């Protein structure tokens, strides 16, 4: 039987993402509108997205078509970074392993050529990484003149896959290449390779209720304050197996996962100012209560797993926006840095976003964000500068928002359905 082990590993990656797609990494969830505007939202979020972005914005002044009720059902976004074509490498390596098994009896010289090429392929696979992010959010808000109320549940999974070359495989493969062709048939390559594939994922799911209130400071200016008590679950997943020993029915075992739950809190503020309240400033502090969770570590020394710690620390973001009936322009900055979990880059975003409104019926959006914390020494795929764009359509009360993202490493898209009035 041909051992299609590495292809099974790529299948396991997909299945592990699918089985946890309602979960999230510490990277905050964003609506499709926010996605298309460079990830901004602290000073410009509409009511349905405000519980996740900045609860104070539920009570902020909005267009008259969005200040009574907002519903987001659902909002989905996804990003993928695979500039080193990790999955394609997996397929190429598997083809060579299968080819060796096919040829070792009928054409041992060709089998030895496969063994020599495997050395180069496995070396190239070493430390190559791919990353996938999947987000899902639901929410609604009811702004009022007294206390605005909203509900949200949101998540954003981050999963990474990495290859690791074991130097012992070089010795094995060079030995096969040096054998007399007549002896190749006795070699069992699948049971001897020690190079590894790793799946490492971090996750958090959160659900909460939000409250916000406006405080009139004078005849024109107003301050909004908001709070979101929420229930949070952290989860990690780490699975490591040799390329020759992977079994596709083992990757989802409980021994590869850890989880932890608890209550947390977001607080936010927004301030409208200017002669016509055309300026808005916002600040939000997410996850006031620090939480952390260690990943599972295999007791099998062959897997050479390290313990990784998922940290959910307070994150502070501030933004400012200028708006009119036909446009919104906003700038936003993370005042704190998010430490990477596993094979990721640290992040601290500086973002710009814009929206141009055509009489409520259509909105054109664009944005850019730059990672101030990015560095060449990160242990995964660098996240540097990302460009975004999107479109919003309002058709008979139904809102459809789409977004797209592109960078030197990432491509992504977002889709959201909802309504507001």
Write out key terms for the chains shown.
421 residues; 14-stranded antiparallel barrel; single chain; two-stranded antiparallel ribbon; disordered N terminus; alpha+beta
Can you give a write-up of this model?
With 421 residues, this protein is an alpha+beta fold. It has one domain. The protein contains six helices and 16 strands. The chain has helices at 5-19, 32-36, 50-53, 86-106, 108-125, 167-178; strands at 70-81, 129-142, 148-164, 196-216, 222-242, 257-273, 279-286, 291-294, 309-312, 315-323, 327-334, 349-358, 362-371, 385-395, 398-407, 410-420. Strands 1-2-3-4-5-6-7-10-11-12-13-14-15-16 form a 14-stranded antiparallel β-barrel. A hairpin with a 5-residue loop joins strand 6 (257-273) and strand 7 (279-286). Helix 1 (5-19) packs antiparallel against helix 4 (86-106), helix 4 runs antiparallel to helix 5 and helix 5 (108-125) packs antiparallel against helix 6. Mean pLDDT is 86; it is low at 1-26.
């Amino acid at each position: 039987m041909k051992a299609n082990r590495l292809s099974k590993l790529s299948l396991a990656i997909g299945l592990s993402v699918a089985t946890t797609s309602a979960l999230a990494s510490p990277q905050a969830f964003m609506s499709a509108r926010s996605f298309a505007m460079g990830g901004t939202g602290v000073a410009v979020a509409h009511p349905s997205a405000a519980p996740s972005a900045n609860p104070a914005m539920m009570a902020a002044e909005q267009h008259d078509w969005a200040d009574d009720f907002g519903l987001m059902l659902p909002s989905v976004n996804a990003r993928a970074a695979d500039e080193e074509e990790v999955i394609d490498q997996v397929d190429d390596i598997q083809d060579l392993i299968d080819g060796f098994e096919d040829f070792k009896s009928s054409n041992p010289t060709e089998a030895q050529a496969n063994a020599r090429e495997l050395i180069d392929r496995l070396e190239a696979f070493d430390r190559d990484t791919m990353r996938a992010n999947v987000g899902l959010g639901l929410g609604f808000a009811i702004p009022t003149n007294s206390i605005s109320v909203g509900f949200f549940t949101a998540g954003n999974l981050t999963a990474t896959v990495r290859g690791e070359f074991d130097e012992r495989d070089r010795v094995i493969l060079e030995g096969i290449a040096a054998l007399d062709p007549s002896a190749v048939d006795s070699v069992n390559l699948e049971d001897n390779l020690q190079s590894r594939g790793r799946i490492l994922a971090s996750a958090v799911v959160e659900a909460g209720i939000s409250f916000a209130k406006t405080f009139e400071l004078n005849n024109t200016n107003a301050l909004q304050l908001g709070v979101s008590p929420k229930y949070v679950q952290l989860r990690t997943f780490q699975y490591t197996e040799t390329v020759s020993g992977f079994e596709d029915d083992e990757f989802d075992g409980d021994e590869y996962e850890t989880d932890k739950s608890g209550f947390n809190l977001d607080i936010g503020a927004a301030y409208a100012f200017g002669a016509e309240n055309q300026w808005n400033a916002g600040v939000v502090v997410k996850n006031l209560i620090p939480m952390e969770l260690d990943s599972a570590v295999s007791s099998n020394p062959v897997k050479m797993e390290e313990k990784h710690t998922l940290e959910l620390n307070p994150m502070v973001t501030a933004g400012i926006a200028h708006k009119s009936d036909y446009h919104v322009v906003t700038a936003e900055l993370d005042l704190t840095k998010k430490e990477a979990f596993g094979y990721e880059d640290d992040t601290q975003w500086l973002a710009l976003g814009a929206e141009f409104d055509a009489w409520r019926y259509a909105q054109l959006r664009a944005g850019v964000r730059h990672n101030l914390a990015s560095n060449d020494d990160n242990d995964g795929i660098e996240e540097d500068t990302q460009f975004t764009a999107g479109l919003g359509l309002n058709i008979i009360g139904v809102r459809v928002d789409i977004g797209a993202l592109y960078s030197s490493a990432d491509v992504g898209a977002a889709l959201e359905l909802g309504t507001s009035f």
